[in-house]
Amino acid sequence: KKWSDVRDACIKGNNNNEFPGVTIDECKEKCVNEESYICQSIEYYPKDQGCYHSEATSSSSDFHIPCFVSGWQYMEILQDPCETDKEWSDIRNACIKGNNNQDFKGVSIDVCKEKCFNEDSFNCQSIEYRSSDEWCFLSEARSSSSDYYLPCYVDGWIYTEKLREDCVT
């Protein structure tokens, strides 16, 4: 299984199991081998080697980045985007601070996505959108950026990113 990068994040109130005194690699291995539930993510606390498994992922409404308690490390098993026909991630109340490459006003979210796909001057990977004034931001950054916030620190913005960039059709 392929794992996401370690991030300062957590999912509040979604622990399925707990394993004290293990390394982060042991925590991941236990998650992959779990049979009583579908383990999809781990939260790890290095200070006491606390390992917590969850069926939830970063798409959960309880996901916080950065985590509301400092010191936690979050990782999730990555789903292969090439095994789906979705072109964009689920829309979230999220944003990436200070990574706007281009903006458009007065466009729908579908037009915003289309502009990202058709962008030639930079490698557009994601959009932020505010429906109240139909404001669209295109960005090279993705949710793996250290500037990614979920929930967004400013109300009204939603975020989605391209999924199928590297798939061979």
TrEMBL record:
<dbReference type="Pfam" id="PF00024">
    <property type="entry name" value="PAN_1"/>
</dbReference>
<feature type="domain" description="Apple">
    <location>
        <begin position="82"/>
        <end position="152"/>
    </location>
</feature>
<dbReference type="InterPro" id="IPR003609">
    <property type="entry name" value="Pan_app"/>
</dbReference>
<protein>
    <recommendedName>
        <fullName>Apple domain-containing protein</fullName>
    </recommendedName>
</protein>
